[in-house]
Fold this sequence. Notes:
Blueprint: H1 3-9, E1 17-20, H2 26-32, E2 38-42, H3 45-55, E3 61-65, E4 79-82, H4 87-95, E5 103-108, H5 112-118, E6 124-134, E7 137-146, H6 153-158, H7 165-185, H8 191-201
Parallel strand pairs: 1-2, 1-4, 2-3, 4-5
Antiparallel strand pairs: 5-7, 6-7
Helix pairs in contact: 1-2, 4-5, 7-8
Amino acid sequence: xxxxxxxxxxxxxxxxxxxxxxxxxxxxxxxxxxxxxxxxxxxxxxxxxxxxxxxxxxxxxxxxxxxxxxxxxxxxxxxxxxxxxxxxxxxxxxxxxxxxxxxxxxxxxxxxxxxxxxxxxxxxxxxxxxxxxxxxxxxxxxxxxxxxxxxxxxxxxxxxxxxxxxxxxxxxxxxxxxxxxxxxxxxxxxxxxxxxxxxxxxx
Length: 203
C-alpha cells in the first residue's frame, strides 16, 4: 500500500474532501474513480496548471490555487487531507484558518510527537494511526477527529491506536535500530535518545 492508497482507505464515500498540497491530484483521481467529488488545491499555479493539463476535463475534481485553506469556503469540505509536507507546515496551515473539519488525515515523516501534541491546540485528537512503508521509507498516517486528549510521553513519541500491528512492529524495529546506532555513535549523553529507546523497549 502506497501513501495515496493509504489516504484513500480512510475516506468514506460521503466525505467532502479537500486535499491541500495535492501535487498531481492522484488522490482526487482515486476518489473520482468511484464517482466522488473532491477539491484538490496547491499554492503553486504551475502545479495546478500541470494537473489541469494532465487530467483534462474531470467533473469530479475541483482544482484550485490556494495557499493552504485560503481559497476554501466554509461548508465545502468536512474532511481535510494534509500530505506531502512537514509537520510544521501542517500546523501553520491550520493556524491560519477558522474552518472546522470532522476528520483531518495527515501523512508526515517527521515530528509526529509535535503534531499529536499541537493538534490539541486546534481541538483535534488522534483517532487512529497507520504506518505506511513507501519507496523504502516509513510514513506515519494519522487520522484526527474533533476533541482533546492527554497523551503520555510514549504515546506522543510512538503513537496510539495503530490499525496495522504488523507494520507497526516493523516500524518499531526500524526505530530501535536507528536510535541504538545514534546512541552508540555519540560520545555525549542524549536524554531524548535514551527516553526513546526506553519507550521502545517497554513495548
